[in-house]
């Protein structure tokens, strides 16, 4: 016995709507004999007659009336399901989860890049904030699709693809009335030896914290903790409250409170890069999206 097909349902609905097999066959561009054969197969499969064939005109049986109403109602939802599923198969309306560390500002440039990709590729994005360390784990666990991190990280990157997006200098965030730095246009890391850090770097964390920790150690000291601390962008508010200083990337210039200024670091190693990471066992949509982000950044 042949299986029911979507075409058979569509043929049946067309016959009822057109009022005859002849008119339906013309609209469907198939022979009337082939159309009649498909309806006969449909009736055999469902084990009851749809049409009363004692009259020359198309007339539904009582069972056929109910079948038509139910099939007609459900075809709308079925077509919608097929459409949604097809879009997913083609990568359309796919939701891609992106994470970025708190030291990477989701500024207008990044938002516009994602907006462009979303509009041209019919892809949706969900953005969250995770530390660079947690992003690697989240990628490997399938919790996110793409990460934006600041190396180095303590986890191995052997299982992920790494694409460098950009590099920027690190700077010192200080209160505008800080007497020690009032007339300085640039700073060395060693100048911060006696300062309180509102974001204490330590070597057990990757990302910016690890980088800053090494800068301080290279300058011969371990940073002192301020009485209130934060490793998020709220550390700038602590600097604004004159609780201490912080080493941050240049892009924090875009979110500076009025009471805070940034001073360049002159140390040779005071650079930080931002890289895009995604799993090596990715699908084509993720790879295409990652390459597109990289391409726009480079242009």
State the main characteristics:
299 residues; seven-stranded mixed β-sheet; two-stranded parallel ribbon; LysR family transcriptional regulator; DNA-binding; WH-like_DNA-bd_sf; LysR_HTH_N; transcription
In words, what does this structure look like?
With 299 residues, this protein is α/β, with parallel strands linked by helices. It is 40% helix and 19% strand. The protein is built from 9 helices and 9 strands. Strands 1, 2, 3, 4, 7, 8 and 9 form a 7-stranded mixed beta sheet that branches. Helix 5 (108-121) links the parallel strand 1 and strand 2 (123-129). Helix 1 packs across helix 2 and helix 1 packs across helix 4 (62-89). It is rod-shaped and about 105 Å long. The relative contact order is 0.13. The model has no long low-confidence stretch (mean pLDDT 88). InterPro entries: LysR_HTH_N, LysR_subst-bd, WH-like_DNA-bd_sf, WH_DNA-bd_sf. This is LysR family transcriptional regulator. Belongs to the LysR transcriptional regulatory family.
Cα Rg: 32 Å
Average the pLDDT over all residues and give the rounded result.
Answer: 88
Main beta-sheet strand count, sense and barrel state:
7 strands, mixed
Regarding quaternary structure, what we see is single chain
- Going by helix content, strand content and strand pairing, the class is alpha/beta
């Amino acid at each position: 016995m042949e299986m029911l097909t979507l075409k058979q349902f569509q043929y049946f609905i067309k016959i009822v709507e057109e009022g005859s097999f002849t008119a339906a066959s013309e609209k469907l561009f198939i022979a009337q004999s082939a159309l009649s054969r498909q309806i006969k197969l449909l009736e055999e499969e469902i084990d009851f007659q749809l049409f009363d064939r004692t009259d020359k005109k198309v007339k539904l049986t009582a069972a056929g009336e109910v079948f038509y109403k139910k099939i007609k109602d459900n075809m709308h939802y079925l077509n919608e399901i097929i459409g949604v599923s097809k879009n997913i198969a083609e990568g359309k309306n796919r939701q891609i989860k992106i994470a970025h560390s708190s030291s990477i500002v989701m500024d207008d440039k990044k938002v516009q890049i994602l907006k462009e990709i979303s509009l041209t590729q019919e892809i949706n994005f969900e953005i969250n904030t995770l530390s660079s360390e947690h992003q690697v784990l989240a990628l490997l666990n399938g919790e996110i699709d793409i990460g934006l991190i600041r190396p180095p990280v303590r986890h191995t990157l052997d299982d992920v693809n790494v694409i460098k997006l950009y590099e920027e200098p690190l700077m010192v965030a200080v209160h505008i009335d800080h007497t020690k730095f009032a007339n300085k246009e640039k700073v060395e890391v060693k100048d911060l030896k006696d300062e309180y850090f509102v974001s204490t770097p330590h070597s057990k964390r990757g990302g910016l914290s690890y980088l800053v920790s090494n800068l301080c150690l290279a300058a011969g000291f371990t940073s002192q903790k301020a009485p209130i601390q934060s490793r998020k962008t709220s550390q700038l508010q602590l600097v604004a409250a004159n609780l201490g200083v912080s080493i941050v990337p240049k892009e924090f210039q875009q979110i500076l409170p009025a009471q805070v200024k940034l001073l360049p670091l002159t140390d040779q190693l005071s650079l930080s890069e931002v890289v895009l990471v995604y799993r090596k066992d990715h699908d084509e949509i993720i790879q295409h999206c990652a390459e597109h982000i990289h391409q726009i950044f480079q242009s």
